[in-house]
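Before any further analysis, we paired sequence with structure tokens, yielding the entry below:
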Amino acid sequence: MSPIDHTHDANARSWLASANAAGTDFPIQNLPFSVFRRGGTQEAFRGGVAIGDQVLDLAALAGTGALQGPALQAARAAAQAALNDFFALGPAAWRALRHALFALLKDDAPAQTALVRDCLVPQREAEHTVPARIGDYTDFYTSLDHAVNCTRLMLADGDVTPNFRWLPIAYHGRVSTIGVSGQQFRRPMGQVMPPGAKAPVYQACARMDYELELGIWIGQGNAAGEPIDIAQAEQHIFGICLLNDWSARDIQVWEMAPLGPFLAKNFATTISPWIVTLDALAPYRTAWPRPATDPQPLAYLDSPANREAGAIDIRLEVWLESQRARREGRGPARLSSTSFRHQYWSVAQMVAHHTVGGCVLNPGDLLGSGTISGPGPGEAGAMIELAYGGTRPVPLGDGEERGFLQDGDAVMLRGWCEKPGAARIGFGESRGQLLPARSQAPV
């Protein structure tokens, strides 16, 4: 687990005023990473760190002389157009750069303040891209509340399959359609089996959904055939972002017998641009819950550290902005809110299970947490749960409601951590918008 150190001091302040503003996602205690450039330019994409309402340009900073030793080496790796080389350096390098940036941005920073200020780019002027070359993307299914809710849409007293309580279930997703916040995509086409029909039809998805998830970025990888022990798993995780696993539910139901999702989930996945490091999340660790009446994890999925602090209290919200609300200036409606601490399997368990059979993880690989739903009302992480399979539409205000998504809808995921005695830190936003399907069938 990442240690608590001086970078988590809730009383620390930056010489940049916007980093000290109440409610900011990006105080000096956060320092998340992205890849950016000034919007509307042909500048090279490079690594940046969020501080207040600014982006600290790591390529510019690396050339100022303000960094030395391991921190400079790490900054040069992070200044590239993808963060893979930085990820591969490992926790010691990640921490060296975090500590150096904290020192340069603190209100009692040394004389380099002017040099650092010249390396700032306003966030409103920045455009982002996917922050790493993603070799593989694995999407997990690890929320018991979500799994039970979906099961009971079909069978009122149903339960999850027995294996759910024994292992973190997952499938391999599609890298080519992962996009950063602001992604727009068309309603997917596919095969659907109408109720009572004897043959499927080819049509646009009629039951379009989102899924509230987190993205887990792999830092250092492992060698083929060498499983990552759960006690070491978090040393292989760089950080976490927001992730929307868009889902075509009617296509999914038809194609998932007997294998996992295919066309229902390969058309778009939207991530937030900022990666919050595990170091920044250290104050928000909490006990990983497992009811005593449930099966206890097998030895390779269990450790004292995971039980004591394997969960992370990341608060999460889903917002929907309809085309009509956008036109009328009403703003988005909040659909649900929950916390990642409810997840049935932890990030360390996901990594350990992923590699136990000998699978190689590489720097820049991305894991999806699976839909995050909590146990209480209004904590569902997908529309299919909130609207009971579309039978009880969710009100959006001013007479609008949704059973599933409509063309023009934009879905925003937001996340943050806060608790007494610690600074609030945020994840920014993941925003994606559904466009109409292409009208013509493929030739």
